[in-house]
Amino acid sequence: MNGPIPSAGAASGGTARPSQEAGPSPEVMVWDPVVRIFHWTVVAGCLLNLFVVEDSEALHEIIGYMVAAALVVRVIWGFIGTHYARFAEFVPGPRRLTWYLSALAKGREPRMLGHNPAGAAMMLALMALLAATCVSGWMMGLDTFWGEEWLEETHEWLANSIMVLALLHAGAALIESRRHRENLVLSMITGRKRRA
């Protein structure tokens, strides 16, 4: 059954109090727990591995494997998860991305409940870099690649690239929050956004 449940007073022909006459919630759940846990696991893992546990190789590896596990779960969730989590819902084609970037450049981009096309492209790029960083880190622990300087440099370059894109992503989220009068950082904590 959809819609608000009538109060006992309203059902019997009486007058409902204003609080009981309220329509649907002004907010809607967009980011489910899997999406939010993935997001903040990656944020924490990258910050820890880049700036906090540099001298502890064992802890660095553990955090790396946790991020890799979160990434695997997120990829699976992208096919079987809730509406806004699914790749089919937000991955843009070239035409849609071009249209959105053109509208963005003119300051006329529409507000979207889920990922906008630019945000989706950024997310896919970050996920690809995360995967490559995790794989290169795992390879560094194999006897075959032990001490290979090119692999260590690649791993470091990938990790630094994640930070650059993450800073751009965070900056874009703050700008979009201001433009659309919506706290996108808070929505990634609560999962809720203002209804369209």
Automatic annotation (TrEMBL):
The keyword Zinc does not apply. Pfam families: Ni_hydr_CYTB (PF01292). Residues 30-191 form the Cytochrome b561 bacterial/Ni-hydrogenase domain. It is a multi-pass membrane protein. InterPro entries: Cyt_b561_bac/Ni-Hgenase (IPR011577), Di-haem_cyt_TM (IPR016174), Hydrogenase_cytochrome (IPR051542). Residues 1-19 have a biased composition (Low complexity). This is Cytochrome b/b6 domain-containing protein. Residues 1-24 are annotated as: Disordered. It comes from the Bacteria.
